[in-house]
Each structure stands twice: as C-alpha cells, then as structure tokens.
Prior knowledge:
This protein has 248 residues and is mostly helical. It contains 11 helices and 2 strands; from the N terminus they run ααβαααβαααααα. It has helices spanning 6-20, 37-65, 90-104, 107-114, 125-152, 157-171, 173-182, 187-206, 214-220, 231-234, 238-241; strands at 69-70, 154-155. Helix 2 (37-65) runs parallel beside helix 5. The radius of gyration is 30 Å and the shape is elongated.
Amino acid sequence: xxxxxxxxxxxxxxxxxxxxxxxxxxxxxxxxxxxxxxxxxxxxxxxxxxxxxxxxxxxxxxxxxxxxxxxxxxxxxxxxxxxxxxxxxxxxxxxxxxxxxxxxxxxxxxxxxxxxxxxxxxxxxxxxxxxxxxxxxxxxxxxxxxxxxxxxxxxxxxxxxxxxxxxxxxxxxxxxxxxxxxxxxxxxxxxxxxxxxxxxxxxxxxxxxxxxxxxxxxxxxxxxxxxxxxxxxxxxxxxxxxxxxxxx
Length: 248
C-alpha cells in the first residue's frame, strides 16, 4: 500500500508530464489554461524585434537620402514609377510598415488578459488565433527581409568622408576647447569665442551655401595661437570614429 499522499502524487504527475512534454519549467498554478498574461509577455518580446528592425531601417532610409549607403538594388529594379533616377529603399520601407503593424499587436493581448473572467472566458479564443499567428508571421518576414538588406547593403565611404569633413570643424569644438584649457586658457572665455566663430561659420554654410570655414577662422584668430600648430592633429577624423572600425 502506497504511503504517498494524493498531493505528492499530483506533484509527481505534474513533474512527469512537464518532462515528457519537453519543458524544463512550468506554471505554479493554472486553471483550465495558463494565464493570458503570458500571451502579452510573449507578443511584447516578439514586438521588440519589430521595434529594433524599424529603428535600423529608419536610420538606413535617412542615410540613403544622404547617399551614404543603400539597400540592395537589383539590376533592372524600378526605384520609382514617376522618377527614373530614384532608388527608393523599398525593403526598408516595407520593414517599417510591417514593424508598425507588429508593434500595434501588443495592445490586443493586454486587453484580452485584462478582460478575462476569473480563470478564463471564451472571448479570448478568436482574438488569440489572429493576434499570435500574425505576430509571429510578421516577425518572420521582418527578419528575412532585414537579413536580405544587411547581406546586400552598399556603403559609400567617400560620401561619408565628405560629410564628416564638412561637419568636422563643429564636431571638434569640444576637443579644441579642451586643448585650449590645457594650454592655460579660461574655459568660459574660450567657449564663448568658439561659440561666436561657430555661429559665423554656420551662416556661411546655411545662408550663403559656402564651405565650413570654422578652422580658417580659428587659424586667423590670435586667441587660439597656443593650438595653431596642433589643429591638424586635433581635428584628425580618426579621433571621432576610430571605434567604428574596431572588430573587437
């Protein structure tokens, strides 16, 4: 005669069924079904794929507009039916559109869980069959399309270099400021002088369409004489992007 209690038998059966089903963990307490909050947790995790791909593809579209990079473009692909020269980032646009749909699916499981009666009511069924399937199908095509983009992405280093050199004088102002302070200059006074020169150089670029002449203005200003000989080193582009070339 077994001396094992009914409760122990239930615990053993629960453990056995869990192992037989191939799971390493289980819910401590459930009713007829697991809590529908788990659906919300899962769909939110899946939607995280959408938000990441949406961010990546949005940045790609912006950089493509600057001609710094492009997604794969087939030999006879039509970029725009209206403008023959265009090479619209169609895959990235598709990803952003589908990612937005995936992210929007997170609302439904939350409402389903919140509106369950006691252990569970049957108004969850039709909703779950649509939402869960759509979430995983959408994530699947997003990942496939993103992989295609990444494997065939084209980068234009010369355009990137051109843009860096255009903005470099402004990017370097903090380094210029620190170098001047090391040379004995007053930080606030130096900051104000750099601010004024930056505004003047900005006007040349934005109002007159000329090149950024910030460095020429610094070279012509005797206040910055202590670092005139160091300018080329201070504004070396490698000081600002060296980590991006690291493979570590």
